[in-house]
Amino acid sequence: MQKTTLINNILGWVVFLVAAITYFATLEPTASWWDCSEFITSAFKLEVGHPPGAPFQMILGRVFSIFATDVTNAAYMVNAMSALASAATVMLLYWSIVHLARKLFTSETLTQGEQIAVWGSGLVGALAFSFTDSFWFSAVEGEVYALSSLFTAAVFWAILKWENVADEPNANRWLVLIAYLMGLSTGIHLLNLLAIPAIGLVYYFKKYEFSWKGVIVALAISIGILASIQYLIIPGVPRLAFVFDKLFVNSFGMPFNTGVLFMIVLIIAASAWAVIYTRKKPCRLEYGNYNCYCYPDWLRFFCHNYYPRIGKSANEPERPRQCFCTFALSEPRTIWRQAFALWAIL
């Protein structure tokens, strides 16, 4: 198994090198026509581009432009960032295809021919994608689509990694990573949000028995999360910042941006409180004859891996290694806590 994993990792990096060499060999030497010139200039000077601004793209572009030997090479370095991001996208695509192709075989151990077929599927799929016109085009210029593709590939690869260890302790760290990457990706392009329904389905098929009703519910929840981010969180946070700043400036006579800074501090403090409260206030659930400790009931929907209480009497059978909490609204007054917790996770 370790040898198979090593070969799979090596092949992934080989795909990365093939794509990176190709993209650098065909890289735009300077600014391309259309939005690329604007993005390169904005990144080099850390300015604001056209709405919605792509701030994370500008920051990363600025980091790459610092390594330019002179200002005439700044555009080349920003283009190089796209080349590396696109090569990494192809590498993650290879590993994702291998993961999915492995599911075509029911046996736990593959024969040599079956394993070669799985690796070959990943190589053909990833390399074919790397040479497609639209992806290659965006890989050699300073546009947002290369980095956006990388984040999209990363979150889907992360949910597949979660699927491999979903029943192990601390597996949900992959879900936290996905939420973090999606938050960063909104500072590049909103394309990443389209991966949410696919992520929701992977989660559903891993945790629940198949039924068409369940699939529809999972899709509805996923689309609801997507819509809430798109139409509530992304436009709502700047709108809330405007309300705070207007209040602090017009009502309290304080300088501009004071309200914005206050809102940022408030969000950080509230998020820190939610994490601390969650860690310090475990709940106890009955699992058969055993007591299981997990997060508070208002975060019960996010809990899946827990350990039974340490210690057992001599007459008790061996305890299971883990138990599962399910989503529940214990009291009406905790609804606002659940809503806030879901927002904090997103």
Could you please describe the fold and organization of this structure?
By secondary structure, the protein is mostly helical. The chain has three domains: 2-154, no CATH class; 213-279; 281-345, no CATH class. Helices cover 64% and strands 3% of the residues. The chain has helices at residues 2-25, 35-45, 55-65, 74-102, 112-130, 133-139, 145-164, 173-185, 196-207, 212-251, 258-280, 335-345, and strands at 283-287, 290-294. The protein has a two-stranded antiparallel ribbon with strand order 1-2. α10 packs across α11. The longest helix is centred in the C-terminal third of the chain and has 40 residues, at 212-251. The two termini are 35 Å apart.
Share of helical residues: 55-70%
- Please give the order of strands in the largest beta sheet: 1-2
Number of domains: 3
The H-and-E topology, N to C, reads as HHHHHHHHHHHEEH
General form: flat
The whole-angstrom Rg is 24 Å
Low-confidence stretches: 284-336
- Broad structural category: mainly alpha
**Range of strand content:** under 5%
Described by strand count, sense and barrel closure, the largest sheet is:
2 strands, antiparallel
Number of E strands: 2
Secondary structure tally, helices: 12
| Mean pLDDT across all amino acids | 84
What distance separates the N and C termini?
35 Å
